[in-house]
Amino acid sequence: MSSELKKIERAARFLQRRLKISPTIGLVLGSGLSEALGRLEREQRFLWEQIPHFPRPTVMGHAGEWVFGMLEKKSVLISRGRVHFYEGYSMSEIAFPIRVMKLLGIERVILTNAAGAINKDFSVGDFVLIRDHINTIPDNPLRGENISELGPRFPNLLDAYSVRLRALAKEAARDMGLELKEGVYVATPGPMYETPAEIEAYKRWGADVVGMSTVPEVIAARHCGLEVLAISVVTNMAAGIGSDKLTHEEVLEITKRREGDLAKLLRAIVAKM
């Protein structure tokens, strides 16, 4: 057994000994979205610093807490925040929470993030369902020794973003009268925002939105057999697309403004799972 798997198992055991529920759905709330879902029924909270081997977020808008409970009569785990490659964390550390989710019995994950719009048909405040991704981060969670207990050496990412879950999300949005766009997400290493030339290149590659997270989690989740749904909140027009200079504070302001509608959408999706 690899030393990494031992760490994952130790973290999972720590939680299992204390949990009152067995979660089957995981939700990761991105920049500024940590409080989107409010309180849960039968709620239990654990700061990441309490859980063995967990990384600690260093970025404003990422609380670093796991919340367990019942949402729409489903047992869920909500991750309030995440860690990023640009914070200096290794890919193993970024993937660690997802892998612990797997050992806790979670089968499906919903990932959310803040993103810049490359597609000019998108607007600030839009919700975008990710149907595929392009990865420019110069590392990934599967490089190095394979943890065969979690998944295969060469996983297939043809269906990285579940067609079934995307259909559920579209149905939930229609029921709410909410417009849900769809597109390709390009992941960059950060922390600097992209140049106009880079955005022009990504546009030619077929990317619709750009951000600094999510893809490492998707790779880790698919490797260990989790079904994935991912939603971006457009917080700005990407460099060269809009005229405004980008700041993290503005990103948090937009996510806070859209938090209520995102919470309604996530609840509706979970109810259909």
TrEMBL record:
Its EC number is 2.4.2.1. GO terms for biological process: nucleoside metabolic process. GO terms for cellular component: cytoplasm. InterPro entries: Nucleoside_phosphorylase_d, Nucleoside_phosphorylase_sf, Pur_Nuc_Pase_Ino/Guo-sp, Purine_phosphorylase. Keywords: Glycosyltransferase, Transferase. Pathway: Purine metabolism; purine nucleoside salvage. A purine D-ribonucleoside binds at E194, N236. GO terms for molecular function: purine-nucleoside phosphorylase activity. The keyword Glycosyltransferase applies. Pfam families: PNP_UDP_1. Phosphate binds at S31, H62, R82, V83, H84, A114, S213. It is an enzyme of class 2 (transferase). Residues 24-271 form the Nucleoside phosphorylase domain. The purine nucleoside phosphorylases catalyze the phosphorolytic breakdown of the N-glycosidic bond in the beta-(deoxy)ribonucleoside molecules, with the formation of the corresponding free purine bases and pentose-1-phosphate. Belongs to the PNP/MTAP phosphorylase family. This is Purine nucleoside phosphorylase. It comes from uncultured Acetothermia bacterium. The lineage of its organism: Bacteria, Candidatus Bipolaricaulota, environmental samples.
